[in-house]
TrEMBL record:
InterPro entries: 6-hairpin_glycosidase_sf, 6hp_glycosidase-like_sf. This is Prenyltransferase.
Length: 356
């Protein structure tokens, strides 16, 4: 049964609509517990966990638990997961460090919402192995390689991926503290990573055309204060399209629902609630009657593209709704509520505002 406190955003999303969206995700879940992008799509470990978080926030605890059980079973001995599965078969055996780290965010979120310490204990070895795998990919300046394969690690670090990893390691530390399992080496590692993101030492491969590179350091807590405000303002008009959401890529006439909802979480984290609510309302044109969401819209010709309704878009909607409504114990996860920052402290650096 769903919980009583389902995210509601008055005038934009009702409790029933939120539950309908969660149900559309649960309908796509496979018997194994895997949650693919769509009924005929593939499963990746990051979007799978985001969907589990949305199910948790909407009170569909059993499907969420099935998703976490799948992650626990499919984790490899080195703590990693393959990048892509389809129908139980591995399609890409390489590992993405961000995909692997995200289990910590999902588990901590589930504990915050449910208060289930037995679940925390059950998932702790999975989280520990995943974070240790990811930290083995950390480079000298604090950044983290985006992936690894049979030939070794891929020594390229991405702003979006490393920002998400920063969030995940902080969630892993919060879980460790909750369980009385201190991890001082993780504290040092996340401090170094946070410093790299805030000072932006040139160690990262830039993807300035992608909106995620713009807001992820803020959504994931690596940047706050004046620098974060300036960063949002600097490229607002490059990405935000009045009335319909934000572009995925700055030079394409394409708005996407998940990116818009992630920006909502970033704006909420900065206390820019009016703008967050406005963007959340703007993307609702992607909603279908059954509660699922189209991935995006090519606004130049009014056509859906890609022509798919993705589980992770619906998941982003639910998590943004929870951030705006403070409905569950996990609603502050992107605000960094009660998350440690690591041993190098709090960063409010202007460097990220001038990288373009």
């Amino acid at each position: 049964m769903p919980q009583a406190d389902i995210p509601v955003v008055p005038g934009i999303l009702t409790a029933q609509q939120c539950l309908d969206t969660a149900t559309s995700i649960a309908r796509t879940q496979q018997p194994s517990g895997a949650i693919p992008w769509s009924a005929l799509g593939h499963t990746d470990p990051w979007d799978h966990i985001e969907c589990a978080m949305a199910l948790t926030a909407a009170g569909l605890i059993e499907p969420a638990r099935a998703a976490f059980a799948w992650s626990r079973r499919e984790q490899r001995a080195d703590g990693s997961w393959p990048i892509q599965f389809r129908g139980g078969t591995v399609e890409d055996a390489n590992s993405d460090s961000n995909f692997c780290a995200y289990i910590a965010t999902g588990v901590w979120h589930h504990v915050l919402v449910t208060g289930d310490d037995a679940f925390a204990e059950l998932m702790w070895p999975t989280v520990t192995a995943a974070i240790e795998f990811v930290l083995d990919l950390q480079l000298g300046s604090g950044e983290i390689c985006w992936g690894a394969g049979p030939s070794g690690r891929i020594e390229e670090a991405l702003v979006t991926g490393s920002s998400s990893i920063y969030q995940s390691i902080r969630c892993a530390l919060a879980l460790a503290n909750h369980l009385g399992e201190p991890q001082p080496e993780w504290e040092v590692a996340v401090g170094r990573l946070g410093h790299a993101l805030a000072t932006h030492s040139g160690a990262f491969t830039e993807k300035p055309h992608h909106s995620m590179d713009w807001y992820y350091p803020i959504m994931c807590g690596a940047l706050r204060g004046d620098a974060a405000e300036s960063r949002i303002d600097l490229r607002w008009h490059d990405f935000v399209v009045d009335g319909i959401g934000i572009r995925c890529v700055d030079d394409r006439p394409w708005v996407t629902g998940a990116e818009t909802c992630e920006l909502v979480c970033a704006l909420d984290a900065l206390g820019r609630g009016d703008e967050a609510h406005e963007q959340f309302a703007n993307m609702q044109h992607l909603r279908e009657r059954d509660g699922s969401y189209w991935t995006g819209l090519v606004f130049a010709d009014g056509k859906r593209w890609p022509v798919e309704r993705t589980t992770w878009t619906g998941a982003a909607v639910i998590l943004a709704a929870d951030a705006l409504s403070n409905a569950t114990g996990g609603s502050g996860i992107f605000r960094g509520t009660d998350l440690p920052r690591g041993l190098e402290g709090d960063y409010d650096c202007e460097c990220l505002t001038s990288e373009r």
